[in-house]
Amino acid sequence: MKDIIYSLIENEKHYPDQIAVKHNEDVLTYRELNRYADALAYFIKDSYKPLIVYGHMSPFMIVGMIASIKAGCGYVPLDISMPEDRIKSIIKKIEPEYIWNTTETQLDLNHAHILDTNIFNEVDIPNRFESQINGSDIAYTIFTSGSTGEPKGVQIRYDSLNEFTQWMIDLNKIGENQQWLNQAPFSFDLSVMAIYPCLATGGTLNLVDKTMISKPKLLNDMLLQAKINVWVSTPSFMEMCLMLPDLSEEHYESLKEFFFCGEILPHKTAKMLLQRFPSAYIYNTYGPTEATVAVTSILITEAVINQYNPLPVGKVRPGTQLTLAENEELVISGQCVSEGYVKDEQRSKAVFKDIKQRRAYYTGDKATVNDDLWFITGRIDFQVKLNGYRMELEEIEFHLRQIDVVKEAIVVPIYKSGKVTQLQGVVVLNQSNDDNERQTLIHDIKQELKQTMPEYMIPRKIIFRDQFPLTINGKLDRKQIAEDILT
Ligand code: AMP
To answer: Which of 254, 440, 464, 473 gives the lowest tally of CB atoms within 10 Å of its CB?
Structure first.
């Protein structure tokens, strides 16, 4: 297959002035994207460490990604929503030679090589940069929540990324040069599902930022103005958009295809979407970051909706194998599987294994097969998804326990129609406090958590208990604690 870098060069030849990436008024054409990426790649060409790509939805984030792939070092995307402590701990682990700052703010990271767009004003940058990446090099490392309190860096090889991109191009039924919508922050691998299939097929990548997400009117304007054809988001984001009454085929004629991944696609959501867009192609896809974004897919038709509730995640993609371990845990094997967690042999060994000389990943998801279709039925551990964000309850508990006043903590996910809608932190304090002090404490606890964890991981409610019930084995009785707050 054509690789991503080759496709980008071809696109520049065929449509140099077409817009490759767009965020509000900030745009980059294919020519500009390649030129800037070549220039940055030249700066970082001798780096053996991944490039940290820092920012939010600037088109220059994409420049950083492409440049790092060309340079062969790959990238680590860090979104501005990450707290400083988390960013510092990731940087400490990666030990990057270069940081690409796409924001206006200066980074207080005590790092020698923080680069920004001023580098493009320097003279003596060669006009072209010949890509030096090999298939087995790491294209990107994305950090996800880790139960020990420390995030895990999932390393994805360039050949896995190309294989995934080709699969997406094959699934896409509406062809090249489309307007794609990317909702996910770049530190979440769902964004990979929009970036590379779009850029490899000469499309325009339209970036949704966090202000648009919080103000539906802005989002609506953007959707109408950009005439989006292909939509890539979490089902949760779709649910929010379905509240826009006009979001239907009648008003958004251009919208022809939807790709969902990252969490369960609720039957109700898919049904409503198909009613509003009866002629659109709607895909439910499934996969963990560790297996390059997604490994199964199914086109959601009326027949599928009528036959299955909950919906299946579909069939496996070519080159990948799915099997079930004894406990019904889903195991993914093939080229899509990550090289492992960066500098973390212990946690890598626990879930990455070789099966018949194929690299395999133990997902922690429980699954079944019915009518040749895969269904995800739950988890074997305490990982949950909230609004598409992956998190380990134990990581949140770890950070809660680090707080001075907290003696013990359990985080309880609250479910509605099979989906987590919020987290509640149940806490035993080191000393008893009266009700007034507790209100202040809730505020203080949340503030402390914000220093170490992204906003979406902070429990919405904090509830106090004098003590926790124990199981017969003397462990904290999670089930009982959850039942107590629900009754
Ligand atoms: P992430 O690594 O953030 O993409 O999260 C991967 C996890 O999200 C999987 O292991 C599943 O638990 C869940 N997941 C992803 N896609 C789906 C889907 N279509 N249906 C149900 N669960 C999903």
So the answer is: 473
CA 182 to chain centre: 11
d(CA 344, CA 359): 17
Alpha carbon of 365 to ligand 1 centroid (Å): 8
pLDDT, mean of residues 439-452: 94
Q: What's the chain's length in residues?
A: 487
Is 366:378 a contact under the CB 8 Å cutoff? Answer: yes
Residue owning the nearest CA to atom 20 of ligand 1 = 264
Q: Which fold has domain 4-370?
A: Rossmann fold (3.40.50)
Q: Which token pair is 312?
A: 């299946």
Q: Determine the atom of ligand 1 nearest the C-alpha atom of 261.
A: 16
Which ligand 1 atom lies nearest to the CA of residue 188? 3
- Residue keyed to tokens 């889903």: 330
Residue 85 has which token pair? 């402590």
Phi and psi for 444 in degrees, rounded to 5?
-65, -40
Supply the pTM of this predicted model.
0.94
User: DSSP code of 121?
Assistant: G
Residues with CB under 6 A from ligand 1: 144, 189, 261-265, 284, 286, 288-289, 313, 363, 365, 376, 385, 390
Where are the CATH 3.40.50.12780 domain residues in the chain? 4-370
Residue owning the nearest CA to atom 13 of ligand 1 = 263
Query: What is the SS3 assignment for 330?
Result: strand
Q: 387-486: what fold?
A: GMP Synthetase; Chain A, domain 3 (3.30.300)
Across the range 368-390, mean pLDDT stands at 95
- Give the integer Cα–Cα distance in Å for 152 and 352: 13
Which stretches within 352-477 are classed as H helix?
393-401, 435-452
Tell me the residue ranges of DSSP E strands in 203-266.
Answer: 204-207, 230-233, 257-260
The backbone torsions φ and ψ at residue 379, rounded to the nearest 5 degrees and listed phi first, read -125, 155
Do residues 153 and 341 touch, judged by C-beta distance below 8 A? yes
User: In sequence order, what E strands does 92-178 have?
Assistant: 99-101, 114-115, 138-144, 152-157
CATH 3.30.300.30 boundaries in the chain: 387-486
Tokens 């086109």, located at residue: 299
Alpha carbon distance 3, 169 (integer Å): 12
Candidate of 144, 186, 385, 419 to mutate for ligand 1, largest count of ligand atoms within 8 Å of Cβ:
385
Taking the C-alpha atoms of residue 335 and residue 256, their distance in angstroms, rounded to an integer, is: 30
| pLDDT at residue 110 in the model | 74
Question: Using one digit for the tens of pLDDT, what is the confidence trace for 42-58?
Answer: 999 999 999 999 999 99
Residue whose tokens read 């070789």:
354
Residues in binding site for D-alanine: 189, 293, 475
- What is the three-state SS of 333-387? EECCCCCEECCCHHHHHHHEEEECCEEEEEEEEEEEEECCEEEEEEECCCEEEEC
